Amino acid sequence: MKKTIALLPGDGIGKEVVDVTVDILKAIAEHFHHQFQFNYGLIGGDAIDQKGNPLPEETIAICKDSDAIILGAVGGPKWDQNPMELRPERGLLGLRKELDLFANLRPIKTFESLLDSSPLKKEYVDGVDFVIVRELTGGLYFGKPSERIVHEGDDAVVDTLLYKRYEIERILVSAFEIASKRRKHVTSVDKANVLESSRVWREVAEEVAARYPDVTLEHMLVDNAAMQLIRSPKQFDVIVTENMFGDILSDEASMITGSLGMLSSASLSSSGLHLFEPVHGSAPDIAGKNIANPIATILSAAMMLRQSFGLEEEAKAIEKAVDNVLNAGNRTADLAEDGKAVSTKQIGEEIKNAL
Amino acid sequence: MKKTIALLPGDGIGKEVVDVTVDILKAIAEHFHHQFQFNYGLIGGDAIDQKGNPLPEETIAICKDSDAIILGAVGGPKWDQNPMELRPERGLLGLRKELDLFANLRPIKTFESLLDSSPLKKEYVDGVDFVIVRELTGGLYFGKPSERIVHEGDDAVVDTLLYKRYEIERILVSAFEIASKRRKHVTSVDKANVLESSRVWREVAEEVAARYPDVTLEHMLVDNAAMQLIRSPKQFDVIVTENMFGDILSDEASMITGSLGMLSSASLSSSGLHLFEPVHGSAPDIAGKNIANPIATILSAAMMLRQSFGLEEEAKAIEKAVDNVLNAGNRTADLAEDGKAVSTKQIGEEIKNAL
Ligand SMILES: CC(C)[C@H](C(=O)O)[C@@H](O)C(=O)O
Ligand SMILES: CC(C)[C@H](C(=O)O)[C@@H](O)C(=O)O
């Protein structure tokens, strides 16, 4: 198989974790006789520094000419005081909108070998296995007006939570599709006792649910969901929610396993061009030190192989190699006891060898 | 001291927990020679059933004629299918707006005797002691438009996140005032990398911080805050945030201690007429069974004595009685091992005796 992969390392530890991941993908290509071509693009702070734009036109072109995209991370204190248009996050938000990456998928699954890393007690996290499906191109993130105004004679500011009905429908369809291949339970999270958008969301969820008679739909208020994620995370199979709620809940959920450095994500578009990235950010404090955990990015690459290229066997090979390396006791600094950590490159080598 | 207290028991377990609390307040009045007059009002589902309105005019009048308000809880499945204006929550939201209860305070503090109840490991929760200050009368909860529209030719729906600058300022002032009497650290939570309202929030926070040179201000993005609450809850002293973020984060935070039935809250107005209520809801599944935990409401009454009436000694007496009763091993069903629970009324009696 011949595939073109856009690589957007971005900022901070982004470069290091993408480098290691490319090594793994090269090993996979060799072993399984595929041809992967890698095209690098600039995004985030790096792109601001080099091109004065967090999302240069070339980067969009590189992505559009590719079969899938792997992103490292964007952001860092260096650009925090910049005006909005010149901030790294704008690159990521722009890419989501430009490529219509409307469905963000975050699997939350405990690794047997890392059970003790969680802030939660073992009995709460052992066996957790769910996916958060977050809407990614609508809601408060993109609604207009988003500006300072005078309201009833007073200085005020407004943001807009806007959804088209079809945007709500397609994300719910994604969630039901995923659930139908899993344990067949969708928890739709909203704030229907306050928001009109949530009441439409609930209606559309019911409509979509009627098309999936074997999948159970449960509605849950967002405040309760924030509690339930801690109180009994095992109850969830697929959680689906709008953009801002999803931002908050998926980061909360990423703490359940206690191993943020292990969590991968996919952002899917209807065109078939998807983006894969680790859940963790650019971690500027540890950038360039060869201590970051590259596994989240490596597992994101496995998601890509499966989801974008249909390469199930190859994806499994990576996931199994990661498991083996962890079971053998290898840990990067984020998960290791003091003085026992292996480096970013070392753990990459171990995984490559385990393939 | 002579005070009038409005009692709004509301729905579900609301009545039971308010009943027990009134007993305690009567004991306090007797012991410390105060006169408390109690005026009952209808709210929520109960008010819908009896008056066809979740917030009858009489209830507002009763509150306005009182020196403080104690609320039980509102809501239940019975009214879930009602149209919006006839839902129990409308009573609560209406009361907040009507009385301008703009500052919701939720102390999150672990009880030594209940450390083991938390889903989090002991070392994460032992010593947790912070307050969430949530803006309660603005943002997405009350902004207009909140309605179905046609947008660019498509069916759509919109909600509005609106804040006047003075609303942002006064809640930040509340937070800094509270912090200046505590460990002098304010964490202001926003989503400034996406929302214009958050950028104004951040500006105002800086302005207010300049007036409190001995209080440290930290900005934190809401997604990160959702993580940090689990990862290291001890870092917080005072968290301040807007209405919807506060709704989500305060419910998440209520899981840290593992004892929702113990958590009290205050909603403060600028007029001096404040409302006190337990954090837990109406729990319709256990209503009328004499098994609910009344301590959250009892501790809310203690907050009232301190905050509204300046009765520090009386507030402490209640808090101490609660501590003693817990230390003696008394637990309601939510916290007890199987078969060892005491009833709502029993634990109320124990606390009264311990006063
Ligand atoms: C960087 C930021 C704009 C972004 C978001 O809020 O979507 C991030 O938090 C994420 O979840 O990918
Ligand atoms: C009942 C509901 C409208 C309310 C809110 O969202 O404010 C509740 O969740 C709360 O936190 O008091």
Automatic annotation (TrEMBL), chains A, B:
EC assignment: 1.1.1.85
Enzyme class: oxidoreductase
UniProt domain Isopropylmalate dehydrogenase-like: residue ranges: 4-351
Biological source species: Metabacillus bambusae
SMART domains in the cross-refs: Iso_dh (SM01329)
Job description of the protein: Catalyzes the oxidation of 3-carboxy-2-hydroxy-4-methylpentanoate (3-isopropylmalate) to 3-carboxy-4-methyl-2-oxopentanoate. The product decarboxylates to 4-methyl-2 oxopentanoate.
Recorded name of the encoding gene: leuB
GO molecular function annotations of the record: 3-isopropylmalate dehydrogenase activity
Residues reported in the UniProt entry to bind NAD(+): 76-89, 281-293
Binding locations of Mg(2+): 223, 247, 251
Protein name as it appears in the record: 3-isopropylmalate dehydrogenase
